[in-house]
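During the second half of the funding period, the structural biology subgroup turned its attention to how the target accommodates small molecules. The most pressing case was magnesium ion, which had performed well in the primary screen but for which no bound structure existed. We therefore specified the complex as follows and requested a full 3D prediction, including the ligand pose.
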Amino acid sequence: MILDVRDLRTYFYTYDGVVKALDGVSFKIRKGETLGLVGETGCGKSVSAFSIVRLIPDPPGRIIGGQVLYHGSNLLWGIDREARITPIKNTGRAKIRRSFRRIKAGLERMSAVRGKGVSMIFQEPQTAMNPVFSVSNQLGETLLTHRGLEVCEELLRAADHVAELPAAIDEFFQTAQIETSSDQLRKAASRVGLAAQLPTVGTELYYVARQTALVGDERRREAFAHTTHRLRLSRARRSFLRWQAAMMRLKREMDDVYMAEMREGRIDRSSRTRLRALRLVLRARGLGYSIWGYRGWVRKPLRDELFWRSVQLLEGVQIANPVQIARNYPHELSGGMLQRVMIAMALCPDPDILIADEPTTALDVTIQAQILELMRDLKQRVGSSVLLITHDLAVIAEVSDRVCVMYAGQIVETSTVSELFRQPMHPYTQGLLASIPRFDRPERKLESIPGSVPNLIYPPKGCRFHPRCPYAMPICKEERPPTTLEGTDHTVACYLYKGPVAVE
Ligand SMILES: Nc1ncnc2c1ncn2[C@@H]1O[C@H](COP(=O)(O)OP(=O)(O)O)[C@@H](O)[C@H]1O
Ligand code: SF4
Ligand SMILES: [Mg+2]
């Protein structure tokens, strides 16, 4: 079990009252599987995703209970101590007193998990990217956060071999013909001795070769010389890289302490204090690097390296002209392109769990298929588990292994995809399935579920689906139905079924 969400409760304290957006949501994600989360718009899918990564907008939102266990560490560590909530009599509203110190502590711990542990593709890529930085800037920042240590170390190692580069480039220049296929060109680039140390050298040579295909040999040689130049590190630049690597190493140690804390629930004060002191010393040592202008100069090799790594990431999500796209700003890209950039960004730390919130909803159908294909590829390569959120059952059928059906802030049915389509149990699931066209049963009439999603400030008592349910019984209006196990891997929350109560 890689992620175990138990009894998650997230409320929004609005002026109209308390929106109980999630009211006891439990589900599990197993290693390497794709779990689909499906339900009508407004049923709490995005809120579930945001609660897992602790990104609920506060105010008005608060996670008020439950656990999110990731490899046994509770990601909701300390959430109950973050705020004191006292209901205001006869108003349906509440007064919230937050402790910002504790909120900050929670966010710090979460940063140990974000990226490498849990990574997220957001519903709207436009809002998730920063409009004032170029694509390569933002990808580079993500790379630095999650792979900074490797990048600095590899760059330093490669700099030791820079003397070999001119000869190697000459060799590349002789063997690589621009007319040859890009694959051959790339292979030629990777044979260059230094590229084995630093793969971006290969990528850079490849694109420089392509861009300078028509300008004549002399100019091409000059362009190649730039690559040599960027790897020739002065003493100041080397010591900056070493300092940056030390910062990254420290951050990693700190993350380990935080993970242990979330796992064991208690605070390891001594190692935390030690690491904090170390960080202070390192920061003091790096004060010189904060001088504007100087910082830009010492950081240049790292910046170049991050640029070419971003290009490699963009190649990974099959963007055709990655150098151009890397230099663009988010508003210059189409929705499908931005979605790819987001996927590249979410996957660069090789996450254990990828949460994809409606990754294809904003796109047209052909692009949708490409994006799904891309996610499937990348999942196979990296081996991560995926939580795929969508309101579209067709997408679920396409890529998921198991599926959770959500209604009004609760999970009503969980099963494997094939079984859910063959034998839907919950009346809501049956309604959802009856409302999509199926080619294998052309004679069937399409039906829609009567009524609409309830207002979650005053959710219906008992089973939240009872006002819309054709089978509603008296007990359904009184008490919430328990989640029962029907078959080996199929749970449902409905009084029509009498299986053993599933222990959550
Ligand atoms: N910022 C917010 N303020 C108040 N209510 C919110 C907020 N965000 C979400 N909600 C409520 O949470 C419920 C679930 O929303 P959401 O998770 O976005 O649905 P979806 O399943 O379409 O992703 C909605 O009913 C909405 O009213
Ligand atoms: S518990 Fe009752 S109201 Fe709810 S889905 Fe089942 S039959 Fe319908
Ligand atoms: Mg949503």
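Two results from this model are relevant to the next phase. The chain has a mean pLDDT of 84. Residues 12, 14, 19, 21, 39, 41-47, 57, 60-61, 456 surround adenosine-5'-diphosphate (ligand 1) (CB under 6 Å).
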